[in-house]
Each structure stands twice: as structure tokens, then as C-alpha cells.
Specification:
It is a single chain. This protein is an alpha/beta fold. The chain has 2 domains: 197 residues, 2-enoyl-CoA Hydratase, Chain A, domain 1; 48 residues, Lyase 2-enoyl-coa Hydratase, Chain  A, domain 2. Helices cover 49% and strands 15% of the residues. The protein has a 6-stranded mixed beta sheet with strand order 1-2-3-5-7-10, sandwiched between helices.
């Protein structure tokens, strides 16, 4: 895996990739370089995930997952530079959204603005109980532009999303779980253990099956039910003539753990 200036990558075992936003001195805020680093990372995984079957995304330190865009850098940008930076962020968001392998967000601290928007593009998230969440853009004269008005509303419903976005007020980890923003609030000190256990479970499953199921859920939700069901069966049929499908059935009948190869 490529070495990046603002993002740490670590392969754990054969199939798990840990990605850490690594600007703790500024709350892991996104500057242009982080945008470029993440765009390259997610694009690389789209092009060829290789042996990677699951990604865990977290932030450096124990207070902040990601504070959003780096406003100190943005203070110096011209209008055109601001728009160009945001285009990089948009391409990175779209690449993360299309990443073929599951991406679990391990929310180690506050997730504000673009940090929360990043979480909302991941497949699901666990968080520490002290984490706070907010889309604060309207308090500084802009609005969510990293997908927040769309992804949050799809998670929590229109009325709740309007309340969160139009007030800009933070909400708690427990509220985030209750509203469907995150899947689980982890006991203090257990976040990474819980995330890694879940990620390893995914890694043990048939990788082609996981990718097809993720794709079917994501794209099917953009369709009506009938078209979604048709999309699902097309995804399903691509798995029938695979080595992993044959191995899975054989292992079941032989009462042993299957050895999946992604073929």
C-alpha cells in the first residue's frame, strides 16, 4: 500500500486494512493534501483491492475522529482554490462510496462537518461514548457539501436531518445510535477491539459474496422494490459459478471451515 503524507495505512493479517486520518494536531481536519491522499487510496481500492477484504477507518488520537475541513487553510484560499479543493473532496467521497470492500468507521472522537459526512459514506460505524456529532456548516455561512444533506436524511429521515443541519447543534453518541447514524456505542476502551472483531468476521466470509451483497444493498436502495429485486438476482447469479461458492457448499457438507480465495 502507498505511503501517504496525511493518512496512515496498516495491513493487519492478510485481508484487513486499517486507515488512520493522521493530522491530530488540527483534529484530523481535511486539507487539500488529505483530500488527495484519500482520493488516491479509495481509487486504488476500486481499481484493485487485491487481498483486502475489509477496511477500518479511524482518526489519530483519542479526542477527534475528524473536525471537517481545515478552516485555517481555507482562510487563505481564493474562491477558485476553495472550489477546486472541494472538487477533490467530492471525488474522494464518491470513490469511498464506490469502494468495493466494506469500510467500517471507528469513531474515536468527535465527528463534525466533513468528518460526519465521511462517516455517513462509510458502510457503518461504531463510536466511543464521548464522541459528538454535528453538521455545523450553516453556522459559518455555508452548508453541507460533502453529501450531508443527502446521506444524513437517508439515515435519520427528513425531519431529523433538517433539525440537525439547520441548527448546526451537536448530538451525542447515544443519540447517533438511536437515530441510526452509527451502529454501536462501545464501552470505554473497547472501540478498536469491537471494530476489529467485526472486520475480521467480514474478512472470513467469501469476499466476492461480501462485495456483491454490499453493491446490491447500496444500489438497490436507489431503486423501487421491483428493480431492486432484479438488481439483487443479477448480483446473486454472478456468484453461482465461482470457486468460492463451490468451496462454501463443499465445506458445509464436510463440516469444516471454508477456505475462500476470492475466485
Amino acid at each position: 500500500m502507498t505511503s501517504y503524507e496525511t493518512v496512515l495505512t496498516e495491513t493487519i493479517g492478510d485481508h484487513l486494512l486499517k486507515v488512520t486520518l493522521n493530522r491530530p494536531e488540527v483534529g484530523n481536519a481535511k486539507n487539500t493534501q488529505m483530500g488527495l491522499d484519500l482520493l488516491d487510496l479509495w481509487t486504488t481500492l476500486i481499481d484493485d483491492p487485491g487481498e483486502i477484504r475489509c477496511v477500518v477507518l479511524t482518526g489519530a488520537g483519542d479526542r477527534i475522529f475528524c473536525a471537517g475541513g481545515d478552516l485555517k487553510q481555507r482562510k487563505t484560499l481564493t474562491t477558485r482554490q476553495w472550489q477546486h479543493q472541494h472538487e477533490i473532496f467530492e471525488r474522494g467521497r464518491d470513490a469511498l462510496l464506490e469502494c468495493p470492500v466494506p469500510v467500517i468507521a471507528a469513531i474515536n472522537g468527535h465527528a463534525y462537518a466533513g468528518g460526519l459526512e465521511t462517516l455517513l459514506v462509510c458502510d457503518f460505524a461504531f463510536a466511543v461514548p464521548t464522541a459528538r456529532f454535528a453538521l455545523t456548516e450553516v453556522t459559518i455561512g455555508i452548508m453541507p457539501g460533502g453529501g450531508g444533506t443527502q446521506t444524513l436524511a437517508r439515515r435519520v429521515g427528513e425531519a431529523r436531518a433538517k433539525e440537525i443541519i439547520l441548527t448546526g447543534k451537536p448530538f451525542t453518541a447515544q443519540q447517533a445510535q438511536d437515530w441510526g447514524v452509527i451502529n454501536r456505542v462501545c464501552e470505554p476502551g473497547t472501540l478498536m477491539e469491537a471494530v476489529m472483531e467485526t472486520a475480521r468476521t467480514i474478512c472470513d466470509n467469501a469476499p466476492l459474496s461480501v462485495r456483491q451483497a454490499k453493491k446490491s444493498i447500496h444500489h438497490g436502495l436507489q431503486m423501487d422494490l421491483k428493480r431492486g429485486l432484479m438488481f439483487e438476482i443479477e448480483a446473486y447469479n454472478r456468484l453461482v459459478d465461482t470457486e468460492d461458492r463451490r468451496e462454501g457448499v463443499l465445506a458445509f457438507n464436510e463440516k469444516r471451515k471454508p477456505v475462500f480465495k476470492g475466485r
